[in-house]
Design goal:
Layout: H1 3-19, H2 32-52, H3 54-73
Helix pairs in contact: 1-2, 1-3, 2-3
C-alpha cells in the first residue's frame, strides 16, 4: 500500500474511534471502557494495516482492537 493511502486509512480509523466519544466533551469525561475502545481501535487499525494491508485489514484490525480494548479496560 502506498504510504499516503496508508496514512489516510489510519487517520480515518483514528477519527472514527474518536467519534465513539462524540457525546463526551473531553477525554477526562470518558469512561475507562470508552478510552480502552478508542485506544484498542487505533492500535488494532495500525496492526491490521501492517499485517493485512489495505482498507479491509485496517478496518478489521480496528474492529477487533476496539472490542479487545473495551474488554481489557472493563
Amino acid at each position: 500500500m502506498k504510504p499516503k493511502l496508508r496514512m489516510a486509512a489510519l487517520a480515518i480509523v483514528a477519527s472514527a474511534g474518536l467519534g465513539i466519544a462524540g457525546g463526551c466533551s473531553t477525554w477526562d469525561n470518558m469512561s475507562r471502557a470508552d478510552k480502552g475502545t478508542v485506544g484498542g481501535a487505533v492500535v488494532g487499525g495500525a496492526v491490521g494495516n501492517a499485517v493485512g494491508g489495505g482498507a479491509l485489514g485496517t478496518i478489521g484490525g480496528a474492529a477487533v482492537g476496539g472490542v479487545v480494548g473495551r474488554e481489557v479496560a472493563k
